[in-house]
Amino acid sequence: MELVDWLSQKKQDIVREWIRVTMEAYPVEALNVLKRSDNQFANPLSHIISTNIALLFDDLLLGVDPERTTPILTELVKVRAVQDFKPSEALQFIIDLKKILFSMKDETVEGGESMPLEQLRKMEEEIDTLAMLGFDIYMKCREKLYEIRANEIRNQTHMLIRRVNEMDKQKEAR
Amino acid sequence: MVKMLEAEELAKDITETPSLLNGKGPDREWMDTPAEFRDGNWAYSAKTKAIESLKMPYARDWSPGDEDWKLPENWKEIISEGFRERLDKFRSFKVFMDICVRCGACADKCHFFLGSGDPKNMPVLRAELLRSVYRNDFTLAGKLLKKFAGARPLTMEVVKEWFLYFFQCTECRRCSVYCPYGIDTAEITMMARELLNLVGININWIMDPAANCNRTGNHLGIEPHTFKTVVESLCEDIEDVTGITINPSFNRKGAEILFITPSGDVFADPGVYTMMGYIMLFEHIGLDYTLSTYASEGGNFGLFNSNELMKKLNAKMYHEAERLGVKWILGGECGHMWRVINQYMDTMNGPTPSYMEDPVSPITGTKFENAVSTKMVHIMEFTADLIKHNKLKLDKSRNDHVRATFHDSCNPSRAMGMLDEPRYVLNNVLNNFFEMPDNTIREQTFCCGAGSGLNTEEIMDVRMRGALPRATALNHVVEKHDVNMLSCVCAIDRATLLALTQYWAPDVEVSGVTELVANALIMEGENEVRDCDLREEPYLGVED
Ligand code: SF4
Ligand code: SF4
Do B186 and B233 fall into the same domain? Predict the structure, then answer.
């Protein structure tokens, strides 16, 4: 049996666990409150994480492809990049998938097939690639924040900058 | 094939049986978790100059990132005394300290909590940061039972925690909408900030604009002649777009109306387009109005600071009205200016100068009954009334390149109840208007994430997580209806929402409502072909 087929059959359990572990980055008191609503707008954080982790897992089964994978991973990393996490904490959830897969290695799927362990290495490499991609996205988000900060200062004094420029031009003309 | 669980079901499942996979044990209780200062989660401290010019105490060089905050030796007594004073002076504060039953209805209503997942951003816990000290110092149960009664002594750690979390509340009042007892966490935050002020803990982004406003009349500290020149160059821009020359008057005695708007409309991008919009609108209806180079700021950062400062900055507008002898004041698209007018002005500075008159629209004859005591009318009420009486010549199709939604800014919506007027105006000036989901608009609107003086760039991380709920709703209408414009009636929002869209929804622009009104205005004497909007973007169907 191919690992991918095994993983597809176990998808529900894995995704559920992956979401759970990802959400555990937030304190228990927060989780107890966040679980109250599953409305996308009333509880965007849980919604973004659960929806995109599920999409990301499907995507991973096809093999990481920057073009296809980036938009999904961006949805997750963008949120983590502005929360109170160190970079390593922000991206921890990607690496956690490895632990989840290892913890399931003795489980079987319908027909009694167990996980084809010899292929697990390959999957780990895919997850590493995902983590590297995540790091690139994280850096882009942080750069974007700096750009926004600079833009904001400029926008706030837009007319004054314009006035100074105009005065400079007038001086030159004289 | 195993059936996939719906994302919603999964979300519900998360907390039922927490996994121990990543080795996390049960968390410590919030009281035992110290506040952590990291770059991006705290705002810069106020500069000595600003504090001194406002004659506030303990001006000194310090940084929240430092271990030693250089507080006065008797800081504990000062705060404690201030606490007691305020409990006596403000009955609501005492009630809010006492009556919370910790039902948790407000817990998941704060945008900062929803975006950060940090429990101390739940309104109930935010208030508890203060209430725990209140119990300890001012209630018998707290004095006797200490931690068992949720009480804790005032320590430096507590003060630092106050600083982090009361400057992570935008005083937006969303939480209070859901509280069965009407507890207003925003007012608790105001009290906490006042207590911090007493020992010289303030942030620069609040103190500096307040000091400038106190000195020159506006947040940027712009002198009258520059203010005038800048407005005149905006008039040149109007001429470029429409071919019409407009010369608004400044400080003109005997004008019927004084127009005051936040200085962000005069100086900041994209606020300037809204300013151009006002000027065009007033020209279109031939309004007898003047601008003031002294009351050149509608915003009132005193609100985020202290009662006294708010009162002083508010009074300046009425002094100017008195000096110029106007009948009433028309106010531009601002958020917190209206909170001050609507909730505090009357008791603080009322009654208005005696010869000021009950506001009546000179164009339609409508008397603005709601503004009789403050003599100040909101531009949206004024414009909606003009449209209702058919006084504007409008061509909606000039806004066909705009697919707009409307962000209810916290202050006009929740503090003022102004929900329908901007929508009425928008629906009359453009063809493509789309609402964001119901639980994110009107009274339930989500804050931009940077109100109450938190619109400073060094805490962009905090702001962006606070902006997540608003952004999620926005992105929904972007996907569903191709929305490309987030309109609002608040000058601070025009700046803060721009940061929000740049991060969360990069294809969306931000505008004021009056900008969109002006785009649609058919002005007398305008260019034969008016082919672009105020941003000089071509109208739909016109080649670039
Ligand atoms: S007033 Fe607004 S920012 Fe403050 S706790 Fe309530 S919801 Fe949060
Ligand atoms: S909703 Fe009101 S009573 Fe309930 S926890 Fe919040 S502040 Fe307290």
Answer: no
